[in-house]
Amino acid sequence: MKKKITVALAAIGIVAMGAGGARYLKNDTAAAVVQPSAPIVTELARSETFTVRRTDLRFTVPLAGTLRPVDQTTLKSEVAAKVSEVLAQEGQPVKKGDVLVRLDTEDLTSWLNERVANLESAKAQLALAEKNRSMKLSLQQKGYAAQASVDEVESAYRTSQANVRAMQAQVDLARKALENAVVRAPMDGFVSERAVSPGDKVPVDGKLAVLIDLSRLEIEAPVPTNEIALVAVGQMAAFRVPGLEGREFTGRVERINPTTKSGSRSIPVYIQVENGDKVLRGGMFASGDIVVREIRNVVAVPPEAVRGDQSQRYVLKLDGDRVARQPVEVAKDATATLVAVASGLSEGDTIVSAPSIVLEPGTPVRIGSR
């Protein structure tokens, strides 16, 4: 009997424990359902966002061409002579008036002396003709000389005058030739080519040297005919030169050719470049852009950051730690990298710039360090 009572009590205890466990499990499940889950935060890389700023928009036409000196001269001999001395070497800087080449003056001096002697002879003949003329005129006034004899001495006098003038011209020419035997630089610049050496014989108009001025250069850049209407004289250009990395140079549109270049559908545009430090050289290749229009101080964002269609444009703007859909009015002015925003954004706003990222408004976000 005692054994039966013990078994009954044990069974009652097991039932009680089961009931208590059931209550515990029920309460624990309810707690799990009530507890809210943590929101999922989307992390954005800094490269996937853009801080709105004010900037200048530049609309450009690409340029590419070769630099060449604006002022360049080929020095040629004005007399036929032998080269006695060459004082300029290729690459040497020279000043206006510096002696570059000396020609042999022996023959030129002899020629000058001969012309001077001829001039003196002509002057002596003129003096005699003038004396005869004066005598005949005096006799004519007294009635002792016929008109024919007077005319004869008058003609001889005028002929002598003409001979003196002719001989004087030859003397001047010989003296000028002697002066031209010393060839001087007509401007400041650099010797780019030396065409003669001492002992060479050069004819009249023979090439002696080439002198260039590097202070002003010019780029001849072909512009396609479908873009030439955008280019105008006075517009600025920015360009770079291989080998001078890290430097950007500027120039100005000086002239526009009225016709297309032969064999192409492009029109040459000439861009003048000031080269005060002489770092640019003739023959260097230049590439860059002509600034055909510029809009200053506008709010601008990357074009890929603007979403929606023509009827409703918007950007994903970071509002605190969440994303908001911000309507914007996009202006017509746009470059390849920036588009102007007329309204809807302010300087300093942060927006999502990566077009592949799609986020619903209110999504929690944070910007990572990468």
From TrEMBL:
Superkingdom, taxonomy of origin: Bacteria
UniProt keyword annotations, A-Z: Coiled coil
Coiled-coil stretches noted in the UniProt entry, renumbered to this chain: 112-170
Pfam families: Beta-barrel_RND_2 (PF25954), BSH_CzcB (PF25973)
Domain CusB-like beta-barrel, first and last residues per copy: 219-288
Molecular function terms from GO: efflux transmembrane transporter activity
InterPro entries the UniProt entry points to: Beta-barrel_RND_2 (IPR058792), BSH_CzcB-like (IPR058647), MacA_alpha-hairpin_sf (IPR030190), RND_pump_MFP (IPR006143)
Single biological process term from Gene Ontology: xenobiotic detoxification by transmembrane export across the plasma membrane
One cellular component (GO) term of this entry: cell envelope
Residues of the CzcB-like barrel-sandwich hybrid domain: 76-209
Keyword Coiled coil among record annotations: yes
NCBIfam families attached to this UniProt entry: RND_mfp (TIGR01730)
Similarity annotation: Belongs to the membrane fusion protein (MFP) (TC 8.A.1) family.
PANTHER family (UniProt xref): MULTIDRUG RESISTANCE PROTEIN MDTA
Record protein name field: Efflux RND transporter periplasmic adaptor subunit
